[in-house]
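About this split. The held-out portion is used to measure sequence recovery: a designer receives only the C-alpha coordinates and must propose an amino acid at every position. Recovery is the fraction of positions where the proposal matches the reference. Here is one held-out target exactly as it appears in the evaluation file.
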Protein backbone atom coordinates (compact mmCIF):
# COMPACT_ATOMS: atom_id res chain seq x y z
CA UNK A 1 0.00 0.00 0.00
CA UNK A 2 1.33 3.43 -0.91
CA UNK A 3 0.78 5.92 1.90
CA UNK A 4 0.51 9.24 0.06
CA UNK A 5 -0.40 11.50 2.98
CA UNK A 6 -0.82 10.92 6.70
CA UNK A 7 -2.39 13.45 9.05
CA UNK A 8 -3.61 11.84 12.25
CA UNK A 9 -3.29 11.81 16.02
CA UNK A 10 -2.66 8.53 17.83
CA UNK A 11 -5.84 7.63 19.75
CA UNK A 12 -7.43 10.66 18.12
CA UNK A 13 -8.92 11.82 14.81
CA UNK A 14 -7.21 12.13 11.46
CA UNK A 15 -6.98 11.03 7.85
CA UNK A 16 -4.70 8.97 5.61
CA UNK A 17 -4.53 9.13 1.83
CA UNK A 18 -3.49 5.78 0.40
CA UNK A 19 -3.33 3.90 -2.89
CA UNK A 20 -3.77 0.11 -3.19
CA UNK A 21 -1.16 -1.39 -5.51
CA UNK A 22 -2.04 -5.09 -5.23
CA UNK A 23 -4.93 -7.29 -4.06
CA UNK A 24 -3.38 -7.67 -0.60
CA UNK A 25 -3.74 -3.90 -0.15
CA UNK A 26 -7.49 -4.14 -0.74
CA UNK A 27 -7.63 -6.69 2.05
CA UNK A 28 -5.80 -4.25 4.34
CA UNK A 29 -8.24 -1.49 3.33
CA UNK A 30 -11.14 -3.85 4.08
CA UNK A 31 -9.75 -4.36 7.59
CA UNK A 32 -9.03 -0.65 8.13
CA UNK A 33 -12.45 0.73 7.17
CA UNK A 34 -15.23 0.55 9.75
CA UNK A 35 -18.84 1.80 9.91
CA UNK A 36 -18.82 5.44 10.99
CA UNK A 37 -15.59 6.25 9.11
CA UNK A 38 -15.68 8.43 6.01
CA UNK A 39 -14.05 7.62 2.69
CA UNK A 40 -13.35 10.15 -0.07
CA UNK A 41 -12.52 9.07 -3.61
CA UNK A 42 -13.10 9.93 -7.25
CA UNK A 43 -16.03 8.00 -8.66
CA UNK A 44 -18.18 7.89 -11.80
CA UNK A 45 -21.92 8.39 -11.62
CA UNK A 46 -24.63 8.65 -14.25
CA UNK A 47 -26.47 11.99 -14.03
CA UNK A 48 -29.45 13.34 -15.97
CA UNK A 49 -29.14 16.73 -17.69
CA UNK A 50 -32.06 18.86 -18.85
CA UNK A 51 -31.52 19.79 -22.50
CA UNK A 52 -32.64 23.11 -24.06
CA UNK A 53 -35.22 21.20 -26.06
CA UNK A 54 -36.77 19.96 -22.85
CA UNK A 55 -35.52 16.41 -23.22
CA UNK A 56 -33.26 14.76 -20.65
CA UNK A 57 -29.89 13.24 -21.44
CA UNK A 58 -27.91 10.77 -19.31
CA UNK A 59 -24.20 11.46 -18.90
CA UNK A 60 -21.46 9.74 -16.91
CA UNK A 61 -19.38 12.26 -14.94
CA UNK A 62 -16.40 11.98 -12.62
CA UNK A 63 -17.14 13.13 -9.09
CA UNK A 64 -15.22 13.46 -5.87
CA UNK A 65 -17.47 12.12 -3.13
CA UNK A 66 -17.00 11.52 0.56
CA UNK A 67 -19.37 9.07 2.18
CA UNK A 68 -20.07 8.15 5.77
CA UNK A 69 -19.57 4.40 5.77
CA UNK A 70 -22.61 2.27 6.48
CA UNK A 71 -21.31 -1.10 5.24
CA UNK A 72 -18.83 -2.55 2.76
CA UNK A 73 -17.75 -5.78 1.10
CA UNK A 74 -14.88 -7.09 -0.98
CA UNK A 75 -15.32 -8.98 -4.25
CA UNK A 76 -12.24 -9.88 -6.24
CA UNK A 77 -10.12 -6.79 -6.88
CA UNK A 78 -12.82 -4.29 -5.90
CA UNK A 79 -13.84 -2.99 -2.47
CA UNK A 80 -17.38 -1.58 -2.46
CA UNK A 81 -18.23 0.94 0.25
CA UNK A 82 -21.81 2.08 0.77
CA UNK A 83 -22.91 5.13 2.71
CA UNK A 84 -24.34 8.65 2.69
CA UNK A 85 -22.62 11.45 0.80
CA UNK A 86 -21.25 14.19 3.10
CA UNK A 87 -19.37 16.27 0.49
CA UNK A 88 -21.41 18.95 -1.28
CA UNK A 89 -21.63 18.32 -5.01
CA UNK A 90 -23.82 19.66 -7.82
CA UNK A 91 -24.75 16.14 -8.94
CA UNK A 92 -25.16 14.25 -5.67
CA UNK A 93 -27.05 15.74 -2.74
CA UNK A 94 -25.71 15.60 0.80
CA UNK A 95 -27.34 12.64 2.51
CA UNK A 96 -27.90 10.71 -0.73
CA UNK A 97 -26.77 7.09 -0.65
CA UNK A 98 -23.88 6.16 -2.92
CA UNK A 99 -21.51 3.24 -3.45
CA UNK A 100 -17.81 3.94 -3.89
CA UNK A 101 -15.65 1.33 -5.59
CA UNK A 102 -12.05 1.22 -4.41
CA UNK A 103 -9.83 -0.44 -7.03
CA UNK A 104 -6.12 -0.98 -7.56
CA UNK A 105 -4.11 2.18 -8.31
CA UNK A 106 -7.01 4.47 -7.33
CA UNK A 107 -6.18 6.64 -4.32
CA UNK A 108 -8.69 7.31 -1.55
CA UNK A 109 -8.75 9.17 1.76
CA UNK A 110 -9.86 7.41 4.94
CA UNK A 111 -10.96 9.58 7.88
CA UNK A 112 -11.51 8.23 11.37
CA UNK A 113 -12.64 9.93 14.56
CA UNK A 114 -10.35 7.55 16.45
CA UNK A 115 -7.15 5.97 15.16
CA UNK A 116 -6.68 3.39 17.91
CA UNK A 117 -3.76 0.99 18.31
CA UNK A 118 -5.47 -1.72 16.24
CA UNK A 119 -6.07 0.63 13.28
CA UNK A 120 -2.52 2.01 13.50
CA UNK A 121 -1.07 -1.50 13.58
CA UNK A 122 -3.09 -2.46 10.49
CA UNK A 123 -1.92 0.73 8.75
CA UNK A 124 1.70 -0.09 9.61
CA UNK A 125 1.30 -3.61 8.20
CA UNK A 126 -0.31 -2.19 5.05
CA UNK A 127 2.61 0.19 4.49
CA UNK A 128 5.20 -2.56 5.07
CA UNK A 129 3.57 -6.02 5.20
CA UNK A 130 6.95 -7.75 5.59
CA UNK A 131 7.63 -5.94 8.88
CA UNK A 132 5.18 -8.13 10.80
CA UNK A 133 5.94 -11.46 9.07
CA UNK A 134 7.28 -13.97 11.58
CA UNK A 135 7.59 -16.99 9.27
CA UNK A 136 9.24 -17.45 5.86
CA UNK A 137 8.30 -20.42 3.68
CA UNK A 138 10.07 -21.77 0.60
CA UNK A 139 7.47 -23.99 -1.06
CA UNK A 140 9.06 -25.90 -3.91
CA UNK A 141 9.32 -28.81 -6.28
CA UNK A 142 11.77 -29.41 -9.11
CA UNK A 143 11.74 -26.32 -11.33
CA UNK A 144 9.23 -24.30 -9.28
CA UNK A 145 9.51 -22.41 -5.99
CA UNK A 146 7.52 -19.79 -4.12
CA UNK A 147 8.89 -17.69 -1.29
CA UNK A 148 6.14 -16.68 1.12
CA UNK A 149 6.09 -14.46 4.18
CA UNK A 150 3.45 -15.36 6.76
CA UNK A 151 2.24 -12.67 9.16
CA UNK A 152 -0.49 -12.36 11.74
CA UNK A 153 -3.23 -11.46 9.27
CA UNK A 154 -2.08 -12.62 5.84
CA UNK A 155 0.39 -14.55 3.69
CA UNK A 156 2.31 -12.68 0.99
CA UNK A 157 4.06 -14.23 -2.01
CA UNK A 158 7.36 -12.37 -2.36
CA UNK A 159 8.87 -14.35 -5.23
CA UNK A 160 8.08 -17.07 -7.75
CA UNK A 161 11.02 -18.88 -9.34
CA UNK A 162 10.47 -21.16 -12.31
CA UNK A 163 13.13 -23.01 -14.32
CA UNK A 164 12.75 -25.65 -17.02
CA UNK A 165 14.36 -28.89 -15.80
CA UNK A 166 15.10 -31.62 -18.43
CA UNK A 167 14.49 -35.29 -17.76
CA UNK A 168 16.82 -36.97 -15.30
CA UNK A 169 17.49 -40.09 -17.38
CA UNK A 170 19.31 -40.79 -20.63
CA UNK A 171 21.57 -38.37 -22.52
CA UNK A 172 19.89 -35.36 -20.87
CA UNK A 173 21.36 -36.20 -17.44
CA UNK A 174 24.16 -33.60 -17.75
CA UNK A 175 21.64 -30.92 -18.64
CA UNK A 176 19.50 -32.00 -15.70
CA UNK A 177 22.26 -31.39 -13.15
CA UNK A 178 23.14 -28.02 -14.67
CA UNK A 179 19.51 -26.85 -14.79
CA UNK A 180 18.86 -28.01 -11.22
CA UNK A 181 21.91 -26.13 -9.90
CA UNK A 182 20.79 -23.00 -11.77
CA UNK A 183 17.32 -23.37 -10.26
CA UNK A 184 18.73 -23.75 -6.74
CA UNK A 185 20.95 -20.70 -7.27
CA UNK A 186 17.94 -18.60 -8.33
CA UNK A 187 16.02 -19.74 -5.25
CA UNK A 188 19.04 -18.96 -3.06
CA UNK A 189 19.25 -15.41 -4.42
CA UNK A 190 15.52 -14.87 -3.80
CA UNK A 191 15.91 -16.32 -0.29
CA UNK A 192 18.71 -13.87 0.51
CA UNK A 193 16.67 -10.97 -0.86
CA UNK A 194 13.37 -11.66 0.89
CA UNK A 195 14.13 -13.56 4.11
CA UNK A 196 15.34 -11.35 6.96
CA UNK A 197 16.16 -13.34 10.10
CA UNK A 198 16.02 -10.13 12.11
CA UNK A 199 12.27 -10.19 11.42
CA UNK A 200 11.21 -13.81 10.89
CA UNK A 201 11.52 -16.39 13.64
CA UNK A 202 12.25 -19.29 11.32
CA UNK A 203 12.26 -20.37 7.68
CA UNK A 204 10.53 -23.50 6.40
CA UNK A 205 11.70 -25.29 3.26
CA UNK A 206 8.89 -27.56 2.08
CA UNK A 207 8.52 -29.89 -0.91
CA UNK A 208 7.43 -33.33 -2.00
CA UNK A 209 10.22 -35.89 -2.41
CA UNK A 210 13.82 -34.85 -1.81
CA UNK A 211 13.88 -31.42 -3.47
CA UNK A 212 13.82 -29.68 -0.08
CA UNK A 213 16.79 -31.75 1.12
CA UNK A 214 18.78 -31.05 -2.04
CA UNK A 215 18.12 -27.32 -1.84
CA UNK A 216 18.89 -27.24 1.88
CA UNK A 217 22.25 -28.90 1.18
CA UNK A 218 22.94 -26.40 -1.63
CA UNK A 219 21.96 -23.51 0.66
CA UNK A 220 24.33 -24.51 3.47
CA UNK A 221 27.25 -25.41 1.18
CA UNK A 222 27.00 -22.09 -0.68
CA UNK A 223 26.62 -20.21 2.61
CA UNK A 224 29.90 -21.70 3.86
CA UNK A 225 31.68 -21.20 0.54
CA UNK A 226 30.59 -17.54 0.20
CA UNK A 227 30.49 -16.79 3.93
CA UNK A 228 26.83 -15.78 3.85
CA UNK A 229 26.53 -14.80 7.52
CA UNK A 230 22.69 -14.50 7.67
CA UNK A 231 22.38 -18.18 6.71
CA UNK A 232 25.39 -19.49 8.65
CA UNK A 233 24.28 -17.79 11.87
CA UNK A 234 20.65 -18.89 11.54
CA UNK A 235 20.89 -22.38 10.02
CA UNK A 236 19.31 -23.88 13.15
CA UNK A 237 16.18 -21.81 12.38
CA UNK A 238 15.73 -23.43 8.95
CA UNK A 239 13.27 -26.33 9.09
CA UNK A 240 12.50 -29.00 6.46
CA UNK A 241 8.89 -30.10 5.95
CA UNK A 242 7.33 -32.65 3.57
CA UNK A 243 4.39 -31.50 1.43
CA UNK A 244 2.26 -33.22 -1.18
CA UNK A 245 3.06 -30.61 -3.87
CA UNK A 246 5.05 -27.44 -4.50
CA UNK A 247 1.98 -25.27 -5.08
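Reference sequence for scoring:
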Amino acid sequence: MKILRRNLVENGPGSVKMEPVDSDDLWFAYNLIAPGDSVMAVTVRKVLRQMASGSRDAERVKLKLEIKVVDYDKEGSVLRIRGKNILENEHVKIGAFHTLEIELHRAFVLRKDLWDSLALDTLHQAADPTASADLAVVLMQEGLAHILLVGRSMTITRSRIETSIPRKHGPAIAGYESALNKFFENVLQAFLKHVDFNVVRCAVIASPGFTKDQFHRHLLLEAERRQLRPIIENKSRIILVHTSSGY
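Annotator remark: The longest strand covers residues 56-75.
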